[in-house]
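Model the whole thing, not chain by chain.
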Amino acid sequence: MTEVTYLEAIRQALFEEMERDPNVFILGEDIGAYGGAFKVTDGLLAKFGEQRVIDTPISEAGIVGAAAGAAHMGMRPVVEMQFIDFISCAYDMLTNYVATARYRAMLPCPMVVRGPSGGYVRGGPFHSQNPEAAFLHTPGLKIVAPATAADAKGLLKAAIRDDDPVLFFEHKYLYRRIKEEMPSGDHVVPIGKARTAREGKDLSIITYGATVWKALEAAEQLEKEDGVRAEVIDLRSLLPMDDEAILATVKKTSRVMIVHEDTRTGGVAGELTARINERGFEWLDAPVLRVTAADVPLPYAPTLEDYVLPQTADVVTVARRLAGY
Amino acid sequence: MLARAPLRVAPASPSRDADRPSSRLTKSQKLELYYYMRLTRSLEERLVNLYRQTKVVGGLFRSLGQEADAVGSAFALDRTLGDILSPLIRNLGSMLVQGATPLEILRQYMAKGDSPTRGRELNIHFGDLARGFVGQISHLGDLVPVMTGITLSFKLRKQPRVGLVYIGDGATSTGAFHEGTNLAAVQRCPLVIVMENNGYAYSTPTAKQTAVKELKDKALAYGVPGVQADGNDVLAVYDVTKRAVERARRGDGVTLIELITYRRKGHAEHDNQSYVPDGEIEWWEKNNDPVDRYVRVLLEQEQVERAELERIDARVQQEIDAATDEAERSAPPEPMDALVGVLADPPSVAPLWYREGVASAVEGSERPASWGTFDD
């Protein structure tokens, strides 16, 4: 079997779902003839034609709204944001229209909005964002953020089949940097289930997306240099959150830290910390600590970006503090 | 004399050429148009009474003076083919044409548990795809892209269906209107966009909303036809919409229609219209009321007997009375239904721990001193 990159895994999921279900179609900017800014949709136009692979004007709100309308009619649209940073242009449509449709109008809205998120790529303030926290606050949406190629494929297939709107935040740093053999058959990963990326007993690192790899690297170093065995939990889904998996690792290690690439204030880590506080306080031997980006727009220059974003050394530093409590 | 010139009034008697689509309407269809206009007006009058009795929980929105534009345009759709429209707050008439019932409207305004949205949404914010209408949201313009997507699905599935979306003069300033119209035009979606120019968006006159002299000229920017009609002449509204609907059904894409009308009531019932020049509202009431005008057409040109119209009026009153009685008997929603149906899976949100086993958050009901009650 050949290994498949994270990016190819996403393309495979789109291809397989479009073959499986004629209601699935994709729309976005430059996704057809050009194959997408990152070539995720390369080849899909030739295979499925311009009725199902639609090049659109630069209109994120328009595209998301149109996807919602088509979804009401039983179609399964997948919208590409050229960079996920531009999802903010569709914020109103997603939070006010799409997320509320089932609740206020009993109108199902099965659609996916996917796109490249994340930094470490020298993309600057508008091509590096992690917008998950902006949507975590919105009832009616689901949010996934895969860290592995197999999860990228399996979660995208689950997202397309889900009866509710799913935001699919893929990480552009991982697109061509990681690859693995794909599980055979119809590989679907359920939304809402976390994954133990590495077993450990001394402390827990809860994370998602590209920082799963930073956490794994740090865990390796901690074991080698300190004899500390860190457990790494890859959330995979942010909405809904896998509360059972989170509580299980809290009970197992009693020391928890959260790592995310997004900025600190109002980030996912705050919500996780509150949940752990409410349900797992008696199990904790130390305060929940955070490793996050600094609260600044993400700058372009390598020295600046590297300083702002979480690095493996940061995870190690904070883990040592946590282990020393 | 008016303090300033009223909105341009389109000609009262458009040309009566033989190929007007309305010339093919039967007498009974023409009486149906009258029925829906009368039902719209009388139902809203009933809602005013209920509002004053505080039985309407939230704000109340009137379409007084705009009944012809909503009814005439919706009547141009083909319900047997599954056409779908998306109304705005002053398009109650279009929903009634599509099959919404007075009972649903009354329950919805009174926040009843058996209202179409089970008490989740207000006023006429509800829809039913099976009957061909999609509920609006308060973020104006958003339904244009949504209707673009609905009509895109018609196109992709090669269905001979058409969509119609209403947009007010104010909401033509939104980005969503632009993005949705542009996308629908590029994709040649079978979509008719009805721009209702009623002179005001809340308190803002159209001249402060846009620098174009006529909203129909916005069509130039999208490469689609822009047409205009007298929105207070129900047959003219029907004609212009019917032609756009037929064009869309042929696969020729989007048409922008501007209907010239006038909003005789405030934005909502609480709005005292202090910003309206003296005499303007009265001028429209006296000279350009769409129901009065259509009554004259029916009596003078269509040989309808006044008694026939009176029979319709009586039927309307009877239907509204019966619906009011029934709606008043409906119960409010069960508080815990608030947690149901955000997602398909899980089907319900868990109660917050301090609400576990609590059936209701407050004793009895309180009417908050919210918007919709201020009037001085």
